[in-house]
C-alpha cells in the first residue's frame, strides 16, 4: 500500500508510539487522522504536522465517537489504513495486599485495549472495503498494537497481558475475514519502549531496564516502532502475523 496521498487513522496519536507513527506517515506524504482523548496534545500535534493532519477527539470504546472519527477520515481523503496505538496499562495482582483484583479495572483495560481496538478496526474496515482496490487488489491495511506481555506477562500484568493476548489471537482470524476485501491485518508486539510512562522513570531505572534486552541493550525507540508500521503498510505480503519488536527480550516473572 502506498502511503503518499492516502489517509490513515492513528489511535493514541497524542503521545508515544502513536505520535511517532503519525509523524512518520505524514513525513512519507500521507494524511493522518489523529484519534485520541487528549485534546491538548492531539491538537498540538496536528498544528505541528500541518495540513496533512486532522485531530478528532476519539473514545475508542464508544461506538458513536469511533464512527464519527471514521466519517471524518473518509471526508479527509481516501481512507486506506488504521494503526491502533491507544491503550492503558494499570498494574494489579490477581490477589494483592488489598484483596482481589478490582473487577472494574480489569474490565476497563479489556475495554480500551481490546474492545476499543476491535471497535475501530471493524468500523475502519467497513469504510475501507468501499474503496476501489489498487492495481494489486489491495484496499487497505490495519495494524494493531499487542505487547510482549501477551506472551510473557509479568506479575501485576494480568489485565494488560489478557488484553494484548486478545490482540494476538484476533490477528489471524481478522485477516482471514477480510482477505476477500483486500484488507490486510497485522499486529506488532513491542518490548520495553521509550514511551512517556517509561521515560518518566529515573535515568538509572531506564538504563537498568535497557540492560535486560539482549541486543541492542537499551529501550526500544518510538521511531523504530513507526519504521515497522511503515514497512508493514508498504509490504503487501505481510498479513495475519504478529511481529515482536523487542531486541530478543523475553521477560521474567518480575
From TrEMBL:
* Keyword Oxidoreductase attached: yes
* A molecular function (GO) term: oxidoreductase activity
- Classification via Gene3D superfamilies: NAD(P)-binding Rossmann-like Domain
Which keywords annotate this record?
Oxidoreductase
Entry's Pfam families? adh_short
SUPFAM superfamilies found in the cross-reference section? NAD(P)-binding Rossmann-fold domains
Superkingdom of this protein's organism: Bacteria
On whether Phosphoprotein is a keyword of this UniProt record, the answer is no
Q: Taking every annotated instance into account, which residue ranges of this chain make up the domain Ketoreductase? A: 6-195
In the record, the note on similarity to other proteins reads: Belongs to the short-chain dehydrogenases/reductases (SDR) family.
Q: What is this protein called?
A: Short-chain dehydrogenase/reductase SDR
Annotated organism of origin: Rhodomicrobium vannielii (strain ATCC 17100 / DSM 162 / LMG 4299 / NCIMB 10020 / ATH 3.1.1)
